[in-house]
From TrEMBL:
UniProt cross-references to SUPFAM superfamilies, sorted A to Z: HIT-like
Organism annotation: Candidatus Brachybacterium merdavium
Protein name according to UniProt: Histidine triad nucleotide-binding protein
Domain HIT residue range list: 14-120
Short sequence motif named Histidine triad motif, residue ranges: 104-108
Gene Ontology terms, MF aspect: catalytic activity
PROSITE patterns in the cross-refs: HIT_2
Active-site residues, Swiss-Prot/TrEMBL: 106
Amino acid sequence: MNSTATDLRDPECIFCKIIAGEIPSERVHEDEQVIAFQDLSPKAPVHLLVVPREHHRDVRDLADRPELLAHVVQIASRVASEQADGDFRLIFNTGANAGQTVFHVHAHVLAGETLPEGEM
Ligand code: AMP
Ligand code: ZN
C-alpha cells in the first residue's frame, strides 16, 4: 500500500490536529506540503511555525525527505519576507533535551527587529 500524507497522521498529535483544522491556528501560509501559522507564545516580533502536513517526529527524519526539507526552508523565507524584512532565524528543536515539546517536526521562524542574540 502506498504511504500518503493521510497515513502519516498521529491521532494524539496537536500539530496533526491543527493541520486537520480540529484545533484553531492563525495560518499565514498553506499548500499541499506544509502549513505555517503563528506560534502561540511568540519569542520574537514575528514567530511562525512551518509544519509539514505529514507527521514526522523531528528534522532528523526530514533528512530522508530532502525536497520536503527544502520546501520548509523556502516557505520560511517567504513568510519572513511577507511578515518582516526577510531576514530570519530558523530553529528545529530536536529531542526533548534540546527543548522540543511537540514531536511533529516544525521549523521556528523568528524575525522582526532586534532579534535577541543567543536566545531562541
Ligand atoms: P518546540 O518546543 O520546539 O517543540 O515548539 C513547540 C512550539 O509550539 C512552542 O513554541 C509552542 O508555543 C507552540 N505551540 C504549542 N501549541 C500551539 C498551538 N496550539 N498553536 C500554536 N503554537 C503552539
Ligand atoms: Zn503530527
